[in-house]
């Protein structure tokens, strides 16, 4: 079974609005990462947050991590049509550092 | 910079045929991975290689074999293809943990159809 589960599965918003996606995981982690996938392409790394961090920012992205609830959220502010993509969280769970991905949130930003 | 390069991009196989997906990275990364992605789903790890000379099973290894040929190359082989192996396959690599964590760099994918 997959380690991470994103919520919602699909999200449709108007350009300029904020988009929030959530990720829950099952076991203790070393790091949690968010990736973006445009249709028909490979995944691209967005941001990494370590287990001892609570919040991290990168441009219009804000990631939070709550290890007590085993959950993370990705906020995209002032969304653009070009942000339309699928977003995945991924966690590494042990010293082997292999990443396990969630099932993703499909974001549609309407112009 | 090429990053992670995988071939072929598209392939159609008949049930029972064999084939090898090739992957190479030019970032001097230690770890390499093969994932599969089915429609509307996330990625599932097939096999990974933490370093040259080692390989380990991931979540869905059945029906696949891998070879870490050298530090740059990591191939995935389907010995007897089945329709259930119709999927998009992604090769990926990552550097040594502690430098950029476990950030993974992906290839563009290989679309495999088994009929």
Describe this entry's structure for a reader:
- The complex is a heterodimer of chains A (111) and B (115).
- Chain A is mainly beta and 111 residues long.
- Chain A is built from no helices and eleven strands.
- In chain A, strand 6 (55-58) and strand 7 form a beta hairpin.
- The N and C termini of chain A lie far apart (36 Å).
- Chain B is mainly β and 115 residues long.
- Classes of the chains: A mainly beta (111), B mainly beta (115).
- At the A-B interface, strand 4, strand 5, strand 9 and strand 10 of A face strand 4, strand 5, strand 9 and strand 10 of B.
- How many angstroms separate the termini of chain A? 36 Å
Secondary structure: helix percent of chain B: under 10%
- The stretches of 5 or more residues of chain A where confidence is low (pLDDT under 50) are none
Radius of gyration of chain A: 13 Å
Order of helices and strands of chain B: EEEEEEEEEEE
Q: What is the chains' assembly state?
A: heterodimer
Low-confidence stretches of chain B: none
**Largest two-chain interface:** A-B, 26 and 28 residues
**Average predicted local confidence, pLDDT of chain A:** 90
Q: Key features?
A:
A: mainly beta; B: mainly beta; seven-stranded mixed sheet; 11 strands
Short account of what is shown:
The complex is a heterodimer of chains A (111) and B (115). Chain A is mainly beta and 111 residues long.
Q: How do the strands and helices of this protein lay out in sequence?
A:
The complex is a heterodimer of chains A (111) and B (115).
Chain A: E1 4-7, E2 10-14, E3 19-25, E4 31-37, E5 43-50, E6 55-58, E7 61-66, E8 71-76, E9 85-92, E10 99-101, E11 105-110
Parallel strand pairs in A: 2-11
Antiparallel strand pairs in A: 1-3, 3-8, 4-5, 4-9, 6-7, 7-8, 9-10, 9-11
Chain B: E1 4-7, E2 10-13, E3 19-25, E4 31-37, E5 43-49, E6 56-57, E7 64-68, E8 74-78, E9 87-94, E10 104-106, E11 110-114
